[in-house]
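<instruction>
Derive structure tokens from the sequence
<data>
Labelled lines for chain and fold
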Amino acid sequence: MAIIMHIDFNSFFASVEQQANPFLRNKALVVGGKKKTDNFNRAIVAAASYQAKQKGIKTGMPIKQAKKLLPNLIIIPADPAKYAMATNKLLSILQNYTDQIEQFSVDEAFVDLTKIVKDYMDATILSLKIKRDIINEVGQFCPVSIGISSNKLMAKIASNSDKPNGLTVIPPHKINDFILHQPLKNICGIGSKTAQKLASIGVNNIKDLRAVPLQTLKFYFKNYGIFLYNAARGRGDYKIYPNNNMTKSISHSYTFAYDLELEAEIHTNLLAIADKVARKIRQKNLIASTIAILVKTREFKTCEKQITLSHGIN
């Protein structure tokens, strides 16, 4: 049976900033906005330090709102190059142990430990070594949480269950009890909209979800119902795709200095943003099969639409 690790930086952007600048350590700060402007009123929180989170500040919150909660909040413009360096250091550390690594996002990865450890105790010892390596190579102010289980779903739930700087091991015989006590939101793939739809059919927790027959879930959620059925039982994919660093999506976002109200102005700016995305796709010699657009209003409400095409375009 597979032994899978999920490793995840905690409050990644904010932690990297605190590691880079000693004056920011143990301070309430958020990362958001861009270096080109010092006007953060229209920006949102991309990451918050744990000191900021303790004051009620959350990722995705408008910075203007965060400042009301904490007037002396420190705001740091995003520095993608700095974060990429930390990501590369993490991947390099993992590669010292195995090449069975699947980068899941900029701050997290799955690792197949099956062939390099004997059992879950051995996996725990290896995890502690990796944590030590991260302290030495990335820095002590960039903590990671690690989860270990028999599949990727449970490994990720495990790492998310203990932050910051956690280490949670869920061997197969403990999966059933562990997942029953997890909220639905802890299952990767169940967002707010899916949770609302589940609630509409009387599903508010894992126990409720287990009670729903597979055919009923497929009726409401199509093939995604199969995932929900298996997730409620702690079942998931255990295969690691080491070459899964292929670009899955390309995007470009822009926060305007003022509200766009004229249709012609909206159309012109949307076309310019779409052109930048298309140029990136062509540079990578890729094609896109799904197009999505996300718009935030002046009240920071989000509207999102997407369409899947019958053929790829660039």
User: Anything to note?
Assistant: The first strand starts at residue 4 and ends at 9. Strands lie at 4-9, 29-31, 47-48, 74-76, 101-105, 108-112, 144-149, 167-169, 288-296, 302-313. The chain is about 40% helix and 15% strand. The domain at 12-79 is CATH 3.40.1170.60 (MutS, DNA mismatch repair protein, domain I).
